[in-house]
Design brief:
The protein is α+β, with helices and mostly antiparallel strands and 309 residues long. The chain has 13 helices and eleven strands.
């Protein structure tokens, strides 16, 4: 087991030291993010199969044996997950995820939201990195798109996989946090990395709402500058119609408000993310070993970034 720590400021590392696990951490906190956290752990791993598990998840008994059997029965399965159970619902993001049931049903999927058990050979075939270090979100989707473009399959089994705790923030607090920590830019970064790749259209579809908002803004201000006031008013009317449709679909005015707010913020983030500096995903993550594992000591002793860790 490898605990990949993104320069946390709580007791994560001290708690991990009580167990027989390897502990590695980012060399600096400026590069922290979902993608780089996954890649940090993956770069120190050595086994044929890799289980990716977030810190707010509790692995359920029996999952691994069933997952191994499924992958050994079909050599084209790149990754396997199971049913994710949210233990606490605190905000509209949690409620929507639970209502949608995206990670609570068994199905062949384009990507494994919530992580899962992956075949190393498949990750190597799909670019050689488990997490795009540039992504602050969508890292699981990006991995799935790469794997599927190479003909690999991803499967969610009808068995419990993890119990998920999630954030302790309210909806507005979580939106504010996503904006402040830069995760709102992830859509643009995803599109930047997908340019020229066979999965670009799939990545584009994932950003359909922010792209629609950008189109509406461009039309509104373009028409306004050209003196076509009726066109600008029509755009505003379409926004009002979208709000009503969302409210009716979700049976909630507040849910509709938060959806439209997130679409507009994501539109801003999309533009920022496209122009954000981009690091080669295969480049080694600058890191250091806090606690070497006996089994992985040889791996830990390999030179990384010109230094022996």
């Amino acid at each position: 087991m490898i605990v990949a720590d993104s320069r946390s400021t709580d007791e994560t590392v001290n708690i991990a030291r009580k167990y027989s696990v390897g502990i590695v951490e980012l060399a600096n906190g400026e590069s922290r993010g979902c993608g780089v956290g996954v890649e940090l752990g993956y770069q120190y791993s050595v086994c044929e199969y890799v289980l990716m598990l977030d810190g707010d998840m509790q692995l359920q008994p029996g999952f691994l044996s069933t997952a191994f059997a499924a992958m050994e029965a079909d050599s084209r399965i790149a990754g396997v997950a199971g049913i994710l159970e949210d233990t606490v619902i605190r905000n509209k993001f949690d409620r929507y995820r639970k209502k949608k049931g995206a990670a609570s049903i068994a199905i062949d999927e384009p990507w494994l939201g919530g992580g899962g058990l992956y075949r190393r050979a498949a990750i190597v075939d799909a670019g050689g990195y488990a997490g795009n270090r540039n992504l602050l979100a969508y890292e699981e989707a990006e991995l799935g798109l790469r794997l599927r473009s190479r003909g690999w399959k991803l499967q969610r089994l009808p068995i419990p996989y993890v119990k998920h705790t999630g954030h302790s923030l309210t909806t507005l607090e979580l939106i504010f946090r996503i904006w402040m920590n830069g995760r709102i830019k992830a859509g643009g970064v995803l599109l930047r990395g997908a340019l020229g790749e066979p999965w670009f259209i799939h990545a584009l579809r994932m950003q359909v709402h922010p792209l629609m908002v950008l189109g509406a803004w461009l039309t509104f201000f373009g028409a306004l500058s050209a003196g076509a006031i009726y066109v600008s008013l029509s755009v505003l009317a379409l926004n009002a119609v979208a709000f009503v449709i969302q409210a009716l679909r979700r049976r909630s005015i507040s849910d509709s408000f938060f959806s439209l707010l997130l679409w507009h913020l994501s539109a801003v983030g999309l533009v920022q993310g496209i122009f954000k500096p981009y690091t080669q995903p295969l480049s080694k993550v600058e890191s250091r070993v806090l606690v070497p594992s006996r089994r992985l000591k040889a791996k830990f002793d390999q030179p990384r970034n010109g230094q022996v860790q």
